[in-house]
DNA sequence: ACGGATTTCGACAACGATGTCAACGCAGTG
DNA sequence: CACTGCGTTGACATCGTTGTCGAAATCCGT
């Protein structure tokens, strides 16, 4: 159906195209395109005519069509496969990506995986089908070999928080092992030798790393970990609370806890409160959370820096998009132990020194 | 440049197109398209050949090109103009949108405005340029007339948390006025008559509504609000803390506070702690926050339900996208007062009844 | 006034995909 | 045997935009 002038006038209900603008301005679509894109070499008279037509028709360029035609094919969009856009870690990461992307006029597509491996693939597919220029992935599945094709096809893929398996790619990880070890060293230094471990799903790579750090640190002090004081697979606050209740009311309860994830920390705190042990039993949590400093006692944590991780990931992405080449590299972002009170409750084995 | 067979074999570095698939399978692009889209009326032999070619070339359809050609032109993407993807309100809203969108295979573009009116327009532009099928907007500017064109062009636009100005559109709002009034009634019922108000930027519509509710509730009880106990434009935790410190150490300090926003609430709590007044001065905050129940005293709040607001907004969007028509409507999502302790500290005017 | 350089402009094809439609092959019918 | 009808298939145009390239108009210096 050809576009006639009278149609254009009547067509307030539909979006104007460059053809419509060109027709109204009495120029070719190509010239209209030139004006819209601010190219030089168009006579002032035509520039004016096109600009008036643009305003009159409220023309908005179709960026997807433009990207399709353009040589680079860039869509100026990055896909972020996150754990859950609503949790603080993911959303801080998301925000960091956005901040860097904003300076380049790039948008972020974000989606939540909820630890569902199938969902991870679905989201990656959805983002690649929409021609995302790059992907940021917090993997939930146990293998990301399916991403090899995207990477060889030139799409930068950066893994964040958890390392890739089955494929070589850049990764930005917290130093989970060192962070967990620091927590344990801190507790031992405050006189604890019987330190309970409460952790997330053992399928999650970071959880495994933190357990490893916990065990290594204990072994550094010649302490043999008590198997029944190590509990995995606590994926909800309530599961963590139940586990902490059980351990604390058992015979020979731990004198301190290392809680290896946010919700686990909070669940454990609830349990200790209920048992009125929160001023007696020490606790260090992995991953900081808002208001940790306002609780009684304030909660000592090993803080990650998800915002910084996002900044690093975004930097890698844009360096790759700018054409830089390098071997896939893993970047460790350090953690920081923040003593606030709960981790400084002294235990029964004060240091001799 | 034409696609030759040997090019296809060598072209592992570039993304395969439907042309490549068709060529390798020995069929026309149209037939390949039919197979990829699962249309009927293709002989089993060709279906097989195409599927093999798809697998061999790791073909992934270009959804943006498809959307461009398709009659509906839907991109299966919704733009969300949020306050800040990293704050709990926005991210809960975001997540609700995602949950509903997921069931329709629709993705969410999200961006943060940070209360910057210019940024609001930029994001809307970016989303419409990318042909988002619909927009969810938490406005920060004082006028959204610029969106009228999108709406008449048939793009559903739903305002959330704050009403639109200068344009008619659906809106999903918390019942700010009633919620604020409920907080004040609650405090009065516990013996308070001198209730300080600490609020966010007065340019934000919700802040104005909450102040209005506060004033009306006071007036219902025949209380004249004290002008110097009303402080606006507290947009950071620290500004709120400073204001609470100032009011509380002034002569004739309020016996209770209504803090009209999240960070303001937390800032006020910090101030009261520092002055050791947190067990003496009552406080009700607007908007719930995690761990409010673990503080000492636990914090009484008027809870909004951003997740529900997102669900309602998403429902409106998809009903519009499905072709339903109705006059723009405002949906009020009720708030809920959650007594936890800080709001039940009794004041100097216990009720006679 | 002339030739050549420069500027301005539009026709055309193409990006990757699909709607339209006509052509083809093959079976069944009169 | 010619004809109809159905199921397959591909040629072509098109979505909105821009890269390429040559034509036309304008400019300059001599």
Automatic annotation (TrEMBL), chains A, B:
Q: Which residues form the signal peptide?
A: none
- InterPro entries, A to Z: HTH_LacI, LacI/GalR-like_sensor, Lambda_DNA-bd_dom_sf, Peripla_BP_I
Enumerate the UniProt keywords alphabetically: DNA-binding, Transcription, Transcription regulation
HTH lacI-type domain sequence ranges: 16-70
> What molecular function does GO assign, one term?
DNA-binding transcription factor activity
Give the PANTHER family listed for this entry: HTH-TYPE TRANSCRIPTIONAL REGULATOR GALS, LACI-RELATED TRANSCRIPTIONAL REPRESSOR
Write the protein's name: Transcriptional regulator, LacI family
